[in-house]
Design a protein that fits this description.
Layout: H1 2-28, H2 36-45, H3 64-78, H4 83-94, H5 107-141, H6 151-166
């Protein structure tokens, strides 16, 4: 009788595993379709800085002020206003500060170009220093440069070399 009881338990466990596997497979096939308007609201709201949090976008913030801005963006989209009109509206109310990425004109253009210009300038400076150092090394290896020394410099070098050889 215990063999029959063990067989029933095995069947019960197998049936449970099968039901869970089928249920998991069916639930994995559920497709959530997003409203295109919601996606557009999120995309535009991501362009604005949260006035309360300041470090994150309106889209990522749940502050009351950010929720109001998202609602206003939704209403403006439903009224048929374009992305540019919505941006202009918020810039007129809150200034350029509301934009997470400054416009690429005027002072905003300087803010976009300055980091790249700094990196480029630093790269040119590094290359210039490397070229100068390589030129100095080649000159030293060729034995050049000794003619540029004054008699006092030659005397000091000879004195220092003598002290070095003596171990002082």
């Amino acid at each position: 009788m215990s063999a029959t009881l063990g067989g029933r338990r095995l069947w019960a466990v197998g049936l449970l595993v099968a039901v869970l596997a089928i249920g998991g497979a069916l639930s994995a096939q559920v497709v959530v379709r997003e409203d295109p308007l919601d996606a557009e609201v999120r995309r535009i709201a991501d362009m604005f800085r949260c006035p309360t949090c300041q470090a994150i976008s309106v889209n990522d913030s749940e502050a009351a002020f950010s929720v109001q801005i998202k609602d206003k963006v939704r209403r403006m989209l439903l009224e048929g206003q374009s992305e540019e009109q919505i941006k202009d509206y918020f810039v007129s109310r809150y200034g350029e500060w509301i934009l997470r990425a400054p416009k690429k004109q005027g002072l905003g253009l300087v803010l976009w170009v300055l980091p790249g210009g700094a990196v480029l300038g630093f790269g040119v400076w590094i290359l210039n220093r490397a070229a100068r150092r390589a030129r100095d090394v080649r000159t030293a290896r060729a034995g050049g440069g000794a003619d540029d020394l004054t008699p006092e410099q030659r005397q000091r070098i000879e004195r220092d070399l003598g002290r070095f050889e003596e171990g002082v």
